[in-house]
Amino acid sequence: MALLGLYAFPQLRVNWPSAVGLKWVLVHDIAYGFINFHLFYVLVFAWLPLPVKRRQYAKAAAGTLLVILLFSVIKFLVGYYLFPDQVLQRMFALTGVPKIYMSFREYLPVTIRTGLGVALLAYGYRLFLQWRNTEPEDRILATAAAQARSRYDRMQEGSRQLLHHLQLLTPVLEDEQKREEEGTKAVLLLSDLLRYMLYDKALEKERVPFKKELAHFERYIALRNLLHPQQSIALHTTGGIPQGTIEGLWLQQCVEASLQQWQQVTGTITIALTCSEEVVTLSLETPHQKKNHQHIPLFPDHV
C-alpha cells in the first residue's frame, strides 16, 4: 500500500485543485490500484504457491487467467455501479452530448491487459519466494541425506565385521572344550553388539554419547580377543570419560582399518585412548613398534 501511495502521489499533487482530475486519480490510481494489489496478493499467496511448488505450470497459467477474469468482473461491476464516468465512459462528452459507456465485452480487453501485467509481476515474485524458501530446505535435505548415507555405511561395515566374527565363532562352538566358557561368552558379546547396532535408538542419530560408544567398543575388543587369540588387544583409556558425543561405530571402524593392515602380526597390540573434552586420540602399537595415531573429534552433547 505504501508503494501504491508513492505511485499516486505525483498525480494527486498535480490534480489536487481540480475536482474532476482528483476524482479521476482517486478512482483509477488508488481505488483500482487497490483492486490490482489484491489481485497480486491472491495470485502470489493464495493461488500460485501450490502449482509452482509442484511445477504444474500449465495449471498455474490456467488458474491465473480465471483469477484475472474474476477480478475483471469485479472491476467492471465497481465501475458500472460506483464510477461509470471515470471507468466506463469512452471519452469526455461535450455539453449536451449524451455519454457513451463501454459494455463488458468492450471493457474486458482493457482490464485483462492490466491483469496480465499484474500476473507477470506476481509470478516472478512467487518464483523468487519459492527459490528463497526452498534453498535452505534443499540444503537441510542434502545434509540429512548425507548423514543418513554415512550412518548406513558405518552400520553396513559394522555388520560385515560382525558377520565375519560370527563365522569365526563357529569353530569355537564346535570345540567342546571351548564351547561352555569361551563360546558362551562370545555369543553373549556378539548378541550385545548386534543389539546395539540394530536396535539402539542412539545410532539413529548422527552422533552418540561417548560413554555409550566406549562401552560398545570395549565389548567389541573383548569379542575380538576371544576369536583371535593369536592377536590379542590390550585397551587402555586415560583422561577420564568426557561428556561429549562421537560418530557411532567410529572407534570400531578405525581399529578394524588398522588391524586389516596388520593381519600377519602376532602378539599383543596395544590400543590407547587418550580422552579430553574436545578430542580423543586413538593410538595403536604392535609388538614390532608399528604405530598408528588418529585424532577423533568430540562434539557437545547438546548438538
From TrEMBL:
Domain Signal transduction histidine kinase internal region: 177-226
Pfam families attached to this UniProt entry: His_kinase
Keywords: Kinase, Membrane, Transferase, Transmembrane, Transmembrane helix
GO CC annotations, alphabetized: membrane
Signal peptide range in chain numbering: none
InterPro entries linked to this entry: Sig_transdc_His_kin_internal
Protein name: Histidine kinase
Organism: Chitinophaga polysaccharea
